[in-house]
């Protein structure tokens, strides 16, 4: 029994150390990506800045593209204990007022965009010269489009869309208002607060969709 307990403790410590290494690598990668750009940042530099081996970074993320993907996934989770998309889905299923639903979508955008938009803009910039980033850009855009189609179909199935608006057009409207370029324009360039941006998204979706 003592051996089993020791092994369990050792396993727990290894997991905790792996999580600390992962967090340190992501923090270092994001700092270097912002300072140097994607192309000039190497896995070795990320590992050195994080205080881990390059092998550890490769094992955890597979390379630079994996680091970028993990940064995006981390931002998409939001700030709560439950993933932001899961909270959004639960809200959508329980809220009966469509206006409250789309305003909540604006609030979720305000929560996740400060972390996800800069990563997506990094992907956009790097895609011009890095094939793996071009592929990741298409993948992430397709993922967002599919989610927006799901949201549009939910509104249509519950008869919330305004007359004459198709699921496809509603999907494209949602896709546009969830684009990182809009966050870049209003928050990063024009100095809006994320909260004001979120309110704008919600109000605009009310007008465009309902």
UniProtKB/TrEMBL annotation:
<feature type="domain" description="HTH tetR-type">
    <location>
        <begin position="19"/>
        <end position="79"/>
    </location>
</feature>
<keyword id="KW-0805">Transcription regulation</keyword>
<dbReference type="InterPro" id="IPR001647">
    <property type="entry name" value="HTH_TetR"/>
</dbReference>
<keyword id="KW-0238">DNA-binding</keyword>
<keyword id="KW-0804">Transcription</keyword>
<dbReference type="InterPro" id="IPR050109">
    <property type="entry name" value="HTH-type_TetR-like_transc_reg"/>
</dbReference>
<dbReference type="Pfam" id="PF00440">
    <property type="entry name" value="TetR_N"/>
</dbReference>
<dbReference type="InterPro" id="IPR009057">
    <property type="entry name" value="Homeodomain-like_sf"/>
</dbReference>
<protein>
    <submittedName>
        <fullName>TetR family transcriptional regulator</fullName>
    </submittedName>
</protein>
<feature type="DNA-binding region" description="H-T-H motif">
    <location>
        <begin position="42"/>
        <end position="61"/>
    </location>
</feature>
